[in-house]
Design brief:
302 residues, 4-stranded parallel β-sheet, 10 helices, 47% helix, flat, binds iron/sulfur cluster
Length: 302
């Protein structure tokens, strides 16, 4: 029988839960349409549930959307988007996570104090676009770089750098840069803006992946933090990354005795429960197949 273990920390984070609560509350009490600027969370199944249950739908741009509710998602947006929403007479419900707001504030502050700003993160990610947007808006002549690691910062040969991190970056990136600064006696500014929820999920996934035969990581394929969990787990053990229970294949579980499960910060509990249920079903089916094989085998020996 397969033993299923769930990571000590996994699934919805504070920011995502808040954003969903705000969106559903406004949709339930308002006669105006409710739209989210981009998908509220990086999970297609949850987006679909919000659409079916509450009529909440994502929009790609603000052009043409007037007189409705607009949810700003947990990742935040650049200041220009707030202006466009105001011009369009939209009722703005700002669900930017407070940890993301902190990064935006640090970025602005460093630019104001004349530092060259480095944002460690994914240039194309909405959160990073928002962080850079706020810094540029407040200090238009600030030099800003988006980089993926320490090496890229060194390449730029900065004179007075200040470094912040996209909230979902791996904590090891912060540690590596911090150590480099200490070892070389540099006067670089560095702020650990990696979110605690992300860090707890990463630690718990890393810990569990060392103790099981197979890890199943549940979350949207467009979710950066889920991808990172899968990367972390795959360093220790065979790892399967699924969006939902339908993607689980029985053959993955053949000969497996311990399965670990973790999920990204944008994965709802009902999807995790579905996955657990499906693994239990697969386990039962495998047990039955093996039992029949054993019976046939013993008959054959007579
Ligand atoms: S991962 Fe952290 S920063 Fe991002 S929304 Fe969740 S709580 Fe906020």
């Amino acid at each position: 029988m397969i033993e299923i273990q769930i990571a000590r920390h996994s699934g919805f984070c504070f920011g995502v839960r808040e954003a969903i609560n705000k969106a559903t509350a406004v949709a339930a009490s308002s006669s105006m349409p409710t739209r989210t600027y981009g998908p509220l969370i990086h999970n297609p199944q949850e987006i679909d549930r919000l659409k079916q249950g509450y009529g909440i739908e994502p929009i790609r741009d603000l052009e043409g959307y007037k007189k409705g509710n607009l949810i700003i998602r947990a990742h935040g947006v650049p200041p220009e988007d707030y202006k466009t929403a105001q011009v369009n007479d939209l009722n703005i419900i700002d669900a930017t996570c407070r940890f993301v707001k902190d990064v935006q504030d640090y970025a602005v502050e460093f630019c104001r104090r004349g530092y060259e700003l480095f944002v460690v993160g994914d240039e194309m990610h909405a959160e990073v676009i928002g962080i850079v947007g706020h810094a540029r808006h407040e200090v238009p002549d600030c030099t800003i770089h988006v980089v993926s690691d320490l090496e890229q910062i060194i390449e730029k040969m900065p004179l007075r750098p200040a470094i912040v991190f996209q909230t979902t970056q791996e904590f090891t990136k912060f540690k590596k840069i911090e150590q480099y600064i200490k070892l070389n006696g540099l006067k670089w500014k560095i702020k650990n803006t990696i979110c605690g929820a992300t860090r707890s999920n990463q630690y718990a996934a890393d810990e569990l992946a060392r103790m099981v035969d197979l890890m199943v990581v549940v979350g949207g394929r467009n979710s950066g933090n889920t991808k990172r969990l899968a990367e972390i787990c795959s360093r220790h053990v065979c790892t399967r990354y699924v969006e939902n229970s339908e993607e689980l294949l029985p053959e993955w579980f053949n000969g497996i005795s311990k399965v670990g499960i973790t999920a990204g910060a944008s994965t709802p509990q009902w999807l995790i429960d579905d996955v657990i249920e499906r693994i239990e079903e697969i386990d039962k089916a495998l047990e039955e197949t093996n039992r029949v094989r054993r019976v046939k085998g013993s008959r054959g020996r007579v």
